[in-house]
């Protein structure tokens, strides 16, 4: 019975061009090899090009020798090593916070934070475009959940004003919205939260390492680091490894250690990954040329594709840009044409984005050459409207 349901669901997805497929790739820095062909890689979140950096590999290898492969236990039992605490101290300093806590993924971080901070008595306000892991954490918390209009501080304020409940109010937004390429209006959201005594949580998975001075993130870009009480980020994107973290007050971190179930009941992040992240943080802070290169490549792609007739979305500060295609089939067709011409940028379709807004996401990497970017532009056919 249930198996029949699975096959019907799969058939339905395929008929609507929405079935997801795993694609086998080999990565070599800014290119990937797929089916024996080398393609310029625009599909990763390794924005700074650090995932394959020799210095990260060396740091990880040394940690592998010293600590072994896995942490072996929860951080609260026998899995808390000096490398974890060194990384947390470095992340706290990077985010200008008192303390930080590392989780085994960004997903686990969001789920852990929201389950710990919100209870069924409380009220969560989520930007309507926040990441799936925030929705999942919100659901698991049991709190009442309301969505406010994307990046709209006025809509948030209206909702906060109308809610007379006595529970805590927690507002959650991404710092950079990776499927739209825009930044949350943090100064406006902060002002609203401060007026209504709401706690602000910012998921800066895509801003960390890329946005703001020295890549310190979206809050740093707006100069409001000390007014974002809960700053979340990942080690898995610009920092080139894997893992997630939250930075904030010492009290917040102590509270999360007691209550964040995905921290307590899960093996500590592998020491190898902690060592790689520590090295990545040092490089990300110091090598400004990586951020400058991404910005330049992003600008070149945006203007050249607009000139070819495409609707391009995304702010200059964000590391990615989106080419809006409408129906899933149109986005898939373009992705196939790009691949044939040597560029790898899969279509982003529902449910990741709303129906009728399928798109191609382009994320230039700091180590792409100008020639590679020109090749990507050339791979886009002229758009006839
Ligand atoms: N938050 C956002 C905004 C993300 O885009 C992602 C990853 N797609 C995550 C959290 C989860 O991070 P991780 O991949 O480290 O689990």
From TrEMBL:
Residues 38-379 form the Aminotransferase class I/classII large domain. Pathway: Cofactor biosynthesis; biotin biosynthesis. The keyword Repeat does not apply. GO terms for biological process: biotin biosynthetic process. GO terms for molecular function: 8-amino-7-oxononanoate synthase activity; pyridoxal phosphate binding. The keyword Isomerase does not apply. Pfam families: Aminotran_1_2. Keywords: Acyltransferase, Biotin biosynthesis, Pyridoxal phosphate, Transferase. It is an enzyme of class 2 (transferase). Coiled coil: none annotated. The modification N6-(pyridoxal phosphate)lysine is found at residue 237. Its EC number is 2.3.1.47. It catalyses: 6-carboxyhexanoyl-[ACP] + L-alanine + H(+) = (8S)-8-amino-7-oxononanoate + holo-[ACP] + CO2. InterPro entries: Aminotrans_II_pyridoxalP_BS (IPR001917), Aminotransferase_I/II_large (IPR004839), AON_synthase_class-II (IPR050087), AONS_Archaea/Proteobacteria (IPR004723), PyrdxlP-dep_Trfase (IPR015424), PyrdxlP-dep_Trfase_major (IPR015421), PyrdxlP-dep_Trfase_small (IPR015422). Signal peptide: none annotated. Belongs to the class-II pyridoxal-phosphate-dependent aminotransferase family. BioF subfamily. Catalyzes the decarboxylative condensation of pimeloyl-[acyl-carrier protein] and L-alanine to produce 8-amino-7-oxononanoate (AON), [acyl-carrier protein], and carbon dioxide. Homodimer. This is 8-amino-7-ketopelargonate synthase.
């Amino acid at each position: 019975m249930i198996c029949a349901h699975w096959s019907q669901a799969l058939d339905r997805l395929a008929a609507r061009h929405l079935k997801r497929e795993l694609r086998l790739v080999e990565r070599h820095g800014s290119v990937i090899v797929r089916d024996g062909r080398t393609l310029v890689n625009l599909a990763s979140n390794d924005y700074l090009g650090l995932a394959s950096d020799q210095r990260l590999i060396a740091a990880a290898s040394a940690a592998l020798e010293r600590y072994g492969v896995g942490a072996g236990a929860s951080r609260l039992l026998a899995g808390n090593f000096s490398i974890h605490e060194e990384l947390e101290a470095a992340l706290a300093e990077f985010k200008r916070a008192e303390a930080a806590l590392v989780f085994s993924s960004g997903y686990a971080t969001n789920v852990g934070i929201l389950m710990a901070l919100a209870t069924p008595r409380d009220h969560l306000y989520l930007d309507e475009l926040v990441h799936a892991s925030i929705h999942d954490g919100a659901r698991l918390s049991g709190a009442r959940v309301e969505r406010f209009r994307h990046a709209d501080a006025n809509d948030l304020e209206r909702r906060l004003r109308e809610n007379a409940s006595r529970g805590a109010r927690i507002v959650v937004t991404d710092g950079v919205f990776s499927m739209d390429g825009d930044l949350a209006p943090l100064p406006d959201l902060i002002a609203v939260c401060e007026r209504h005594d709401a706690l602000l949580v910012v998921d800066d998975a895509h801003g960390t390492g890329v946005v703001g001075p020295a890549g310190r993130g979206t809050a740093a870009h707006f100069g409001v680091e000390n007014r974002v009480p809960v700053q979340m980020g990942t080690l898995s994107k610009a920092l080139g490894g894997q893992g997630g973290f939250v930075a904030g007050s010492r009290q917040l971190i102590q509270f999360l250690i007691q209550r964040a179930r995905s921290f307590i009941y899960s093996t500590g992040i592998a020491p190898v990954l902690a060592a790689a992240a520590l090295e990545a943080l040092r490089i990300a802070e110091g090598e400004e040329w990586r951020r400058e290169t991404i910005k330049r490549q992003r600008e070149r792609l945006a203007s050249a594709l607009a000139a070819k007739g495409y609707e391009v979305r995304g702010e200059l500060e964000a590391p990615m840009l989106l080419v809006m295609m409408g129906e899933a089939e149109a986005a898939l067709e373009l992705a196939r044409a790009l691949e044939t011409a040597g560029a790898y940028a899969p279509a982003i379709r529902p449910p990741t984005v709303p129906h009728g807004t399928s798109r191609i996401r382009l994320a230039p990497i700091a180590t792409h050459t100008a020639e590679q970017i020109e090749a990507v532009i050339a791979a886009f056919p002229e758009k006839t409207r």
